[in-house]
Amino acid sequence: MAKKRSNKRSKVTASSEPNEIEKVNNAIEEENDDVQHVGFGDEQEHDDNEEEEALSSEDEEVNEDEDDDEENDDIPTQSISAVEQQHVQEQREAEETMNVASAPPIIQSTGRYQNKQRCLILSARGITARYRHLLEDLKTLIPHHKKESKLDVGKNYQGGGAGGGYGAAVNEIAEVRGCQTVLFLETRKRGQDGYLWIGRTSHSNNDHAALLRAAGESDDGDGLASSTNKLSLMMNGGPSVKFHITNIHTMDELKLTGNCMKGSRPILSFDKSFEEREELNLIKHLFVDVFGTPRGHPKSKPFVDRVMGFYYGDGKIWVRNYQILEQTATTAKEAAIQKKLTGHSHSTSLIEIGPRFVLDPIRIFRGSFGGQTLFVNESFVNPNVTRSQEKKEKGERYVRRKGAERKRKVREREIKKSVPVDPLADVFQ
């Protein structure tokens, strides 16, 4: 066969001279006839055997494919679909596990009243009318509150050995009323300075308190028991934050047009600074515990029609309360204009309700109304220092004014001395 191919190529290449081509072709044909007569039968038998083997192998493959098809036909389609469904389900479960591992845990609410948090709202004796109206407004905003009368406790009060003063008394009241958080307002300098305490009470950590009491009672000596009583206020409950509250405007004072349903649950909106700074993140969680109404509370309404905003600026926290107002266009023209501007036929806006106030954080404590200091605001200036500086400035202005008066009198005397005496000044007297 190889000779045939080579001969064909030689025929193709010898296309230039026709006479020589005929001679060469005749010679090649004679050689090919000799080769065919010598070995044609063996090659033909070999080729026939190869063709038979190829045909038999193809028949066997076709038979095997038919057998496989018959076996597959015997398998029911339901089992194949069940296997595929199981495989798809396994893939989905694997993807869900990966997503759950990467994403934060999602807490799904059942709609029942399970978060039974209560907030104790009270004030110290001696607050002014403005602070009293502010507390009334806060009580309307916090339906899960427990109110208490004005607290009159001296600094020497020792509440069961757990510290003293207002902190011990407030923790005792919270334990009796079953409150986990507290909002306590006190004033100094005859109502000039207002301080707001927000934190978790000792009742929120009764298990730890029980451990401390057990440790104090099991001690043979008085050393551990006394130290436990001293540290119980620091270790039990908390954290708590002390704010200086300023720029207070109540609902009655503002006369704003916003309005919402009493007892409705608010949307708490926080500035991005509350996620960037650690102390503000802790304060954010306390605000959520105090101002966030638990779902399903008996005194709350199943509506969300207001927003409480907490914004951080100039080193202070600015608190605002807004109504969520949704307005629908009354005419087709208004709806078309609204949809062109916002993409919706209805508009959503915020209208301030009140109250509004500013909180300047002073110090964050680990415990309830005391304990280890976690954060100190270095930029906070005590109102007493501010008033003393103002008085000092007033005193300096008084000194300057009196000095100018003395200089004026001295100058007048000098002028009188320098002017000569008029001899005719007493003529008409």
Largest sheet: 11 strands, mixed
Strand segment tally: 11
User: Which geometry do the CA atoms define?
Assistant: extended
Q: SSE string, helix = H, strand = E?
A: HHHEHEHEEHHEHEHHEEHEEEH
Amino-to-carboxy terminus distance: 166 Å
Describe this structure in words.
The structure is a single chain. This protein is of the alpha+beta class. It has twelve helices and eleven strands. It has helices at residues 2-13, 18-74, 77-102, 129-141, 166-177, 206-218, 223-235, 251-254, 273-276, 278-291, 332-342, 383-418, and strands spanning 119-123, 145-147, 181-188, 193-200, 240-249, 264-270, 301-313, 316-328, 346-352, 356-365, 373-376. Strands 1, 2, 3, 4, 5, 6, 7, 8, 9, 10 and 11 form an eleven-stranded mixed β-sheet that branches. Helix 1 (2-13) packs across helix 2 and helix 6 runs antiparallel to helix 7 (223-235). The model is unreliable at 1-18, 35-46, 68-79 and 217-235 (pLDDT under 50).
Chain-wise SSE layout:
Blueprint: H1 2-13, H2 18-74, H3 77-102, E1 119-123, H4 129-141, E2 145-147, H5 166-177, E3 181-188, E4 193-200, H6 206-218, H7 223-235, E5 240-249, H8 251-254, E6 264-270, H9 273-276, H10 278-291, E7 301-313, E8 316-328, H11 332-342, E9 346-352, E10 356-365, E11 373-376, H12 383-418
Parallel strand pairs: 1-2, 1-3, 6-7
Antiparallel strand pairs: 3-4, 4-5, 5-10, 7-8, 8-9, 8-10, 10-11
